[in-house]
Amino acid sequence: MIARLLITACLWLAATPAIADTVIAARTIRAQTILAPSDLTMVAGDVPGAIDSIDEAVGLEARVMLYTGRPISASDIGPAAIVDRNQIVVLRYSHGGLSISADGRALNRAGIGDVLRVMNLSSRTTVSGVVAPDGSIHVGGLAAQ
User: Where do the SAF domain residues begin and end (predicted)?
Assistant: First the structure.
């Protein structure tokens, strides 16, 4: 009888949905601010698309304005930008033994690994590439790898 009650209790606990926590902004945070633990707090409840761990957000940059008490989604935050809009950057193309470099102007802000549109200053052509850790933009051969 006791074993049957324990099994029933275990099955009931397993069948109830787990309540997840959601990360919200503890205060209004401006875009381009690096998030610290004091900027964030947890609330009970699961919000689809919202992050569920403060550790996921600490050290990342707010991409948009984050308002007090609102859930923070993964698209609201990202790696800190190392390239600013209108910054002159080096465009690099490498494939096999061929390597080409040119200067370009960043058309947006971006962090490491982000895809960024850049205007080639020589040809005035707009190209897209991936931001490298050194701030250069890899287009073509390396961007596709």
Answer: 20-78
User: Are the CB atoms for 82 and 135 separated by under 8 Å?
Assistant: yes
CA separation for the pair 93, 115 (Å, rounded) = 15
CB contact at 8 A, 126 and 118: yes
Look at residue 47 in the predicted model and tell me its pLDDT.
Answer: 87
Decide which of 56 and 1 is more confident: 56
Report the run of H or E that residue 13 belongs to, with start and end. Answer: helix 2-15
- Terminal alpha carbon distance of the chain: 62
Indicate whether 85 and 64 sit together in one domain. Answer: no
Please check whether residue 3 lies inside any domain of the structure.
no
